[in-house]
Amino acid sequence: MKAKNILGAAKALCLAYTIRKKTPLNVMWRITNRCNSKCKYCVIRDRKMRELPTSGILNLINQMSKAGTQRIGFVGGEALLREDFGQIIEHAKKKGIYVTLVSNGYLIPEKIQLVKNLDCLILSLDGKKINHERDREPGAYEKAIAALESASKEKINVLTNTVLTKYNLKDIQFILETAQRYGFKSTFNLLQGAPEMLPSKEGYRKAIREVIESKKKGMPVVLSFKTLHMLEEWGDYAKPLSCTPIKGFKCWAGKLIFNIDTDGSIAPCDIISNIKSNNPNCADIGLKKAIDSMHEPDCKACTCAHVLEYNHIFSLSLPVIHDWAKVVFRQ
Question: What number does CATH give the domain 3-328?
Answer without folding.
Answer: 3.20.20.70
